[in-house]
Design goal:
globular, single chain, about 150 residues, 5 helices, alpha/beta, five-stranded parallel β-sheet, about 40% helix
Length: about 150
């Protein structure tokens, strides 16, 4: 996996990220952060943004995140943003040392499994964002609001 990028590609990515970052900052009074998502894009795109100071990056496929995390700088704060299957929890928790957050947990079982694996691997716990099914529609994922503590 190559981390080399062209000047033109870097300029395009940086311009886009900076524009969005400024909007995020102005709309949130500086209280929100931009997570740059590189779904199905090469690791070199992440490297280009990393080289100008971006540190939060997101992926929505476990295998892609594992592959990129192995070749990119270790101080990146990775966000898993895809739908997480129970059978992928262990793999995600075990192989990504710098996993910052999992943003799409829809069951307590998955959250517990993630952090149980992190504890046995002597890795820091992961920030977990719970998906709540506020509409009550059966075909939608998420924890029922009445099940929240």
């Amino acid at each position: 996996m190559s981390l080399e990028y062209t000047k033109e590609r870097a300029e395009e990515l940086i311009s886009n990220a900076n524009t969005i970052s400024e909007s995020v900052k102005s709309l949130s009074n500086g209280e929100a952060r931009l997570v740059c998502v590189s779904k199905l894009k090469p690791a070199s795109d992440i490297q280009a943004l990393y080289d100008v100071g971006y540190r939060h990056f997101g992926e929505n496929y476990v295998q892609e995140l594992i592959e990129k995390s192995q070749v990119l700088p270790k101080d990146i704060q990775w966000h898993f943003i895809g739908g997480l299957q129970t059978n992928k929890c262990k793999e995600l928790a075990k192989h990504i040392d710098n996993l910052y957050a999992v943003e799409t947990i829809d069951t307590e079982k998955k959250a517990k499994k993630l952090n149980d694996v992190r504890a046995t691997e002597d890795k820091p716990i992961v920030n977990i964002y719970i998906q709540v099914n506020t509409s009550g529609e059966e075909q939608k994922s998420g924890v029922n609001p009445e099940d929240l503590n």
